[in-house]
Structure prediction request, 322 residues.
Amino acid sequence: MRVLVTGGAGYIGSVVSAELLATGHEVVVVDDLSTGHADAVPPGAEFHQLGITDLGGVLGGWGIDAVVHFAAKSLVGESVADPAKYWHGNVGGTLALLDAMRSSGVFRIVFSSSAATYGDATENPIPETAPTRPTSSYGATKLAIDHVLSNYAKAYDLAAVSLRYFNVAGALLTGDGIGYGERHVVETHLVPLALRAARDEGGNLSIYGSDYPTPDGTCVRDYIHVVDLADAHLRALSVGAPGDHQIVNLGSGSGNSVLEVIETVRQVTGRDLSVREQPRRTGDPATLVAANDLAATVLGWRPKRTLAHMISDAWMLEKSVP
Ligand code: UDP
Prediction:
């Protein structure tokens, strides 16, 4: 299959591109490099520095069979402060991409949706049928795109799959010595921040809230290895018929607390990090864990890699970067 990966210079997009290439697919990456890195595009992928609103005149000539769509703004806090950037960038951008796909005869898409579409969960594990009440503009734009895909699939014979990720971590370390991992300029995620603190021996890490209604008082999240996540995308490319839109959670079905993540970082790295308890971060629900039965049924997928595996792979990469 010849696959267009939007946002293929970003964290998850680059891992999925590398895995597509490794399994014999052809990959065309578009990324405007607003947050991605050109050197994260895997060797062997065709790369165009373009935004998703720029594809109208070119997509038809690329011979694309399917699109895996990652390109998006993805900072939750920023999305609340500047929603216009997120509605124009994420929803407006996706509408332009879908226009380009329709006029070029490309009718298959796998979309990077998010657990942020659920907002404050009323039940855990969260099934795909749970109420969707996003608490940020970021989550609202991902949900809006899910609605667009449902409408477009039905009306325009699109085969669409939305994958709702829970907490992605880890890195892909390839046999030829290349690593693909998280390199956000503005880093807000727990695992890379904890590894950074471990790397700067005794470095500081904030724990945002220790008075949550969870077993140890810190937030519980469902962590998933980016390589397992990529595997789900590859599977999603071959499910669903024209006219179908499927929404599938990607998570492990169980969670780890912030303190458990920190302890695993200590064990894997053999380093200490100093933690400081801070007030809760606005908008963080206590617990978010995926129900993943649908992923097993629809994609034949279950995650294989543990939290220690994610942290170990991310640590290998963190150590190797000067
Ligand atoms: N977190 C933390 N310290 C940090 C970053 C995150 O305690 O420096 C907590 C955060 O409050 C949440 C969990 O770690 O409970 C996971 O946060 P992350 O930003 O990685 O993912 P999110 O669940 O917000 O998408």
